[in-house]
Write a structure and sequence with these properties.
The structure is a homodimer. By secondary structure, chain A is α+β, with helices and mostly antiparallel strands. The first copy, chain A, folds into two domains: 82 residues, Glutaredoxin; 115 residues, Glutathione S-transferase Yfyf (Class Pi), Chain A, domain 2 (Up-down Bundle), CATH 1.20.1050.10. Chain A has a four-stranded mixed beta sheet with strand order 2-1-3-4, covered by helices on one side. In chain A, helix 1 packs parallel to helix 3. The longest helix of chain A is centred in the middle third of the chain and has 24 residues. At the A-B interface, strand 4, helix 3, helix 4 and helix 6 of A face strand 4, helix 3, helix 4 and helix 6 of B.
Amino acid sequence: MSGLTLYTYWRSSAAYRVRIGLALKGLEYRSEPVHLVHDGGRQHAAGYAALNPQELVPVLRHGDQVLRQSMAILEYLEETWPQPAPLLPADAAGRARVRALAQAIGCDLHPLNNLRVLQYLERELGQDQDAREDWVRHWTGGGLDALERLLADDPGTGRFCHGDTPGLADCVLVPQLYNARRFGMDPARWPVLARIAQACQDLPAFAAAAPEAQPDAPRP
Amino acid sequence: MSGLTLYTYWRSSAAYRVRIGLALKGLEYRSEPVHLVHDGGRQHAAGYAALNPQELVPVLRHGDQVLRQSMAILEYLEETWPQPAPLLPADAAGRARVRALAQAIGCDLHPLNNLRVLQYLERELGQDQDAREDWVRHWTGGGLDALERLLADDPGTGRFCHGDTPGLADCVLVPQLYNARRFGMDPARWPVLARIAQACQDLPAFAAAAPEAQPDAPRP
C-alpha cells in the first residue's frame, strides 16, 4: 500500500486529472469522497477546510504530506514515482510545452467554469441557466480552439499531446473534454483534441479514472 | 546576451511574474511590449496570435523556442538556469508546496479577474463598473484569504513563501497583491502576505520587474 488518500469528487475535473495520473503510474490509493453539492457543499465543512483552506478538491495525502492543486500533485507524483509512465518529457523545452498545454486548460479555461463561479453568476449576478451555459461554452470553446491550434501546428504533437505516450497535458485534456460534452459541445469541433482523447480513452488507466467508474458516482 | 525576448505588458500580472523570475536569475532580455488595450488589444493581432493562439501575454522567446504560460516559463527558467536564485526547493514535498501556492493564485484567482473576463462581464452580461469591481474583490479576497491561511499555518513559510529565499510562489504573489491594491483592497487584511511582499519589494529584482519600471509604462 502506498499510503495515498485522494479527497475526490466523481465529477470534479481537477480530481479526475489526479486519478488519471495515479492510474497511469499504477499507484493504489484510498478514495475519500467529498460531495460538492450535498449539505451546501462538503468542501466547505470545517474538517475539509482545515485540510484545504481553498475549499476545493482534490487533496492528496501521502503519509504526513498534504498535497493541494491538481497540477502540483501530478508533478509530485512524477518526481516521487518517475517510473512507470513519465508524465513529462526529458528535455526542458518539451517539459515547458507540456506544462503550457496543461496550464492553458488548468489556468485559463477550467477555473472560469467551475461550480463556485457558476454559483456566483446565478446568486450574485442573477444570471439564468441559459446565460450560465453560454458563459461555459464561451470560455470552453475559445480555450479549446486555442489549444487545438497549439497542438495542430506543432510537430511535437503525436498520438498524445506530446509524443506517443500520455503525459501531464493528457491528464488535463481528457477531463476538460468530458466537461465540454456535459455542456452539449461536440468534440468534433476540435479534431486533434478528439483524436488524442480517443487514444487516451483506449487505455485502461483513463477508463479507471473516469467519473462514472468512481465509487461516489450515482448508480445508474 | 541570452537571446531572450519577452512579449510583455507593463500591467499584466502574468508578465510581471516572468519579469521577476528573469530578474532574480540576472538574465538580460529584450522587452517587446504588446498593448492589451490599444487597437482593440494588440494581443489579438494576427502576428501575435500566431505566436500565442491564446492571445494572452506573456510569451518568452529563447532562441527558436516559443514559451507560453507564465508558470511554465518560470519552470523553464529554473531548469535552464538553476543558478543563481533557485525558484524551487530541492525536496519533492517542498516543490509541491511552492507549486500549489503559485497555482492557488495562478489557477484559481488570477484568471477570474483578467481583462477578457471583465470585458465579458461588461459587454455580454451588462455588468456595470461596481458589479465588476465587486467580482474582482470577491475572487481576490477569498483567494488571498485562503492563501493567508495556507502560509500562516505552515512551518515551511519563512521570510518568503517558502523558506528564506524568494521563489516561484513569491513571483506569483507580488503581482497579485499589486492587483489587489489597484482594486482598492488593503494588503493589511493579509498580514503574512503583506510581510512577504514587503520582503520581496526590498530586493532589487522585484523593483526592476515592477509595472511602473517598464519601458511601456505610461510616463508620469
